[in-house]
Give the backbone structure.
Amino acid sequence: MIHNLLDISDLSCEELNYIIDIASMPVSSLPRLLEGRGVALIFEKPSLRTRNSTELAVTALGGHPVYIQSEEVGIGVRETPEDVARVLASYHSAICARVMRHETLRSMVNAIESQQELYEWAATIPVINLLSDLAHPSQAIADILTIQAELGDPEGKIITYIGDPNNVFRSLMEVCAMKGMLLRCACPDTYMPSENDISLINSLGADLEVFNDPLRAVAGSDVIYTDTWVSMGDEAEADIRREAFRGFTVNDELVSASGQDPIVMHCLPAHRGEEITNSVLCGKYSAVWLQAANRLPAIAAVLVWALGDRVMGDRGLPDRGLPGRESADNASTAEVEESGNMSMDVGQ
């Protein structure tokens, strides 16, 4: 059965826990599920961590990663996303893609699914999101892996995201909600989380406290998380964003305002002096480098989950203990309680 991962919401709580369990194992101990097989890695955006971690994960599982740059394919220009997906699916055992538009991933999934009546293999080729404008699920899995390594059970811990509620924020809040964390966000009034984001978080049984004062937001926080103020694709409004987010830099004063010994996280690349200072990024509270290292076991675990139904009974894997895919989808929020509501705190 096909297991695509376009967003964290594609996972049930059981599946998320299974992936985390696999990611907690040494990558070298995982079975070589991809022996003699290829995995297509499409990159419309540049990458350091995502490319290196995914290539190494595929290799560790016995496969051959094929790196494909945007200029080589020209998705939506030279060839449609659907045609690219159909061709690559006929060669490879999985398609991993880092794309400009989330809709490109959906088009790829639909194209492969449309081939299933014609070709048996089409039912076994997953599409995995390595980043889109909407979501960054593999990053979020590495993040929760890091939080658990540093703090133990994340349930009841407070995570505060400082900055632009972007694709990283969205996936991070989903995974933290599923693990029972308390969610906060600090951002300017003009860059509040969208209603869709709030509805998604509420559907997972979580509340999101939103502040426009980062010092108030971090009080009592166990985790302080930030990301660039200017994401890829937002360069045209870089100056506007830097001005809007002035005062939201994660610095020593902000970390001290937590009143805790928090871990500080950043998905990188970092812009020192903007969203974070060097003293915090490289200081005693930083979990940034462990977070970066965890990208490798995270994507390896996602691949094992995505390919696992082909190799049920492979040695060394934990018992999946999962319901069938249809029932898993219906029970994706079985471990969370009723929906919460967003609470707005815009006091100065």
